[in-house]
What we know:
Helix content: 55-70%
Oligomer: single chain
Strand order of the largest sheet: 1-2-3
Shape: elongated
Structural class: alpha+beta
Radius of gyration: 27 Å
Number of strands: 3
Amino acid sequence: xxxxxxxxxxxxxxxxxxxxxxxxxxxxxxxxxxxxxxxxxxxxxxxxxxxxxxxxxxxxxxxxxxxxxxxxxxxxxxxxxxxxxxxxxxxxxxxxxxxxxxxxxxxxxxxxxxxxxxx
Length: 119
């Protein structure tokens, strides 16, 4: 499907003129390009995410930027969580690791003391 066909379908669905859809579309893509060129991440709900990755230069040449697009599927949509949820999970994981490390430290000391007590 070509872009002008998509614009015509959008115009029909939104009861707009095709030229108006084209103007909005051009401005949208212009802004997306600016954001991506700055290296910022662009996430479009129910569509996907654009990411900019910089690859280190080989043999002292210039670094190159690549743009990646990750399509959001129904399963990633369902799995997607807010930043607050991710932070809470990260903190819980850190707390669990700290508890495990603390338990290992206590268990290790007790094992050493028991071994030292034996003749």
